[in-house]
Each structure stands twice: as structure tokens, then as C-alpha cells.
Amino acid sequence: MSEQQRQALDALLRSLPRPETQPTPAELRTGFAAAMTRPAPDGVTIRRTALGGRPALELEPAGAAARGLLLYLHGGGYVIGSPDTHTGLAGELAVRTGLRTTSVDYRLAPEHPFPAAVDDGLAAYRELLDTGTDPRELVVAGDSAGGGLSIATLLAARQAGLPQPAAVVVFSPWVDLTLSGASMRTKEDADPIFTEADVRAYADLYVGAGDRSHPLASPVFADLTGLPPLLVQVGANEVLLDDAVRLAARAGADDVEATLEIGPGLPHVYQSEHGRLDEADAALDRAARFLSSHLPAPGKAGHVQEH
């Protein structure tokens, strides 16, 4: 990253509002949408649909492959964000993979606390399988809380006896709601977006007095045996660094193929700076190659499984 790019990125991140008083969830959502929403790339057709009983966006890149589907779960601390705020990021993955992508508007806290988001993720995943999607042609991706939710959804699917998808990619996943990672404190000064208090506030809204170490709330504490190949990308300058590092280690210990990429000097979900930051575009290219490499070649998927 050039010094000019770094300064521009720091200025952008530090321009995000940090009010003196705790804003309401509605105010948080409005501010986040205004600051972070980016349009889909050129050539991507967007359709409003539903999946698993929830609203969703379908993003179809021009010349989309006949096979393959990407399920995307957006970030936002389980409190903010939507498929609309993440249209740009999900659309970039859609274009790079050539896959039809469905981004789900799962229910948010505090109105719908844990495990509502996991229930919605599982319902969406189950409907894809029930309507004929071959799990060998299905991949999953998510960022931040959506990264944690991606892993939790696959754990819930395993518990329900459903087959796993071909691969999963997570960007800066939030997978420890107990905030026990050392980087929650050691990286606080380096992180231009979050403090430990910020992250704790989101956990308070999502889990409340519940068990924050529950495997579906904090998948870093789960047995990950049987999950599909996993790519974890994280920035070195974020309080969630250790969430990503420990998730990859946990996956490896449970005999899951796991790849961990740490971007030096980069912040939380730096992939959202696609088109502005060279490292973001390169990371998205690698993520797309990872997902595509685990999909069968055309004509090799076989018959669709019944469920």
C-alpha cells in the first residue's frame, strides 16, 4: 500500500461518526448505510427476492456460470448492515467468481437477539438445498459478524444433518463474543475503526445476558470437524485479528483445510475498499480463486442430491 493510499484510507475510516452518546440501533443503521453503501459493479443485475423466509438480494453478474451459487452473509455486528449496504462487496465477489450470489437480510439485534441470525442463516441454506442446489456447487462467504455467522450457519447445518457446501471464505470474522483474544487490547491503538468497548456494545445487543461462549455465537470455541475448506482473510491492524488467527487454528486442529491471510497494516474488512485500495482488489481476487477452485468443473457435479 502506498503512503498516499494509506492516508486516504485512514481519513475515510476516521470520518465515520463516533458520537459522544450511544446512538440507537436505528441511528446506527442509518449512519452505517450512509457511510458504507457502495453500488454493485457494472454488469451485475440485482433482483429483490426471498430466501429462508427473509428478504434477500440476488446479484447476477453478466455471463454468470450455469453452475454454482454463492450465499453471502453481511457484516455489521449483528445490529447494523443489510444486503443493500453490502451490495458492492458481494457484487465484487459475484463478478470475480462468475457466480449468482444471494445476500440474505437476516434479522438483527436487539429486536431479534441470538440465535435469530443463525436460525435465518440455516433457513436460507436449507432452502437452497431443498430447491435443488447441489451442495458441491454451493459456496458461502461473509464479513465481520457475517463471517462468524457463516461459520455458525455451517455448524447449524451439520447439526441438522445437512451436507456442507464446497468452500467458505470469511473476511475479518467476528467469532469470539467473549472478547478473549489478546488483540482486542493489543491492537486497539492500531485499529482505526473499533475499540474493545465498541465491540462489547455489539455483543451486549446481540447476546445480552446469554452465553457468549456458545459455539453458535462464538464459533472459535466450536468443534469445526467436517466443515468445508476455509479461507480466512484479516487485517493486521484490527482488534479482531486474534479471532481470525484462532479460527484458522481451530479449523486446522479439527482436520479442516484452512488458509489464513494476514494483511500487514490493513484494517477491518479492508476488502470493502475495492477499487480504492490495491490490497482489497488483490484479496478479493484470491478469495474468488479459492471459491472457484473448490467448485466442480462444468459437467462434473453429477446429479443433484435429494434432501
- Approximate shape: globular
- What is the number of E strands? 8
The profile of the biggest β sheet is: 8 strands, mixed
Which stretches of 5+ consecutive residues score pLDDT under 50?
Answer: 8-17, 301-307
Count every helix, treating DSSP H or I runs of 4 or more residues as helices. Answer: 9
Overall mean confidence score, pLDDT: 92
Give an overview in words:
This protein is α/β, with parallel strands linked by helices. 36% of the residues lie in helices and 16% in strands. The protein has 9 helices and 8 strands. It has helices at residues 3-14, 25-36, 87-97, 116-130, 145-159, 183-186, 196-207, 241-253, 278-293, and strands at 44-51, 54-61, 69-73, 100-104, 138-143, 167-171, 230-235, 258-263. An 8-stranded mixed sheet has the order 1-2-4-3-5-6-7-8, sandwiched between helices. Helix 8 (241-253) links the parallel strand 7 (230-235) and strand 8. Helix 3 (87-97) packs across helix 9 (278-293) and helix 4 (116-130) crosses helix 5 (145-159). It is globular and about 50 Å long. It starts with a helix and ends in a 14-residue tail after the last helix. The relative contact order is 0.14. Mean pLDDT is 92; it is low at 8-17 and 301-307.
Characterize this entry briefly.
With 307 residues, the protein is of the alpha/beta class. The protein has nine helices and eight strands.
Give the SSE layout.
Blueprint: H1 3-14, H2 25-36, E1 44-51, E2 54-61, E3 69-73, H3 87-97, E4 100-104, H4 116-130, E5 138-143, H5 145-159, E6 167-171, H6 183-186, H7 196-207, E7 230-235, H8 241-253, E8 258-263, H9 278-293
Parallel strand pairs: 3-4, 3-5, 5-6, 6-7, 7-8
Antiparallel strand pairs: 1-2, 2-4
Helix pairs in contact: 3-9, 4-5
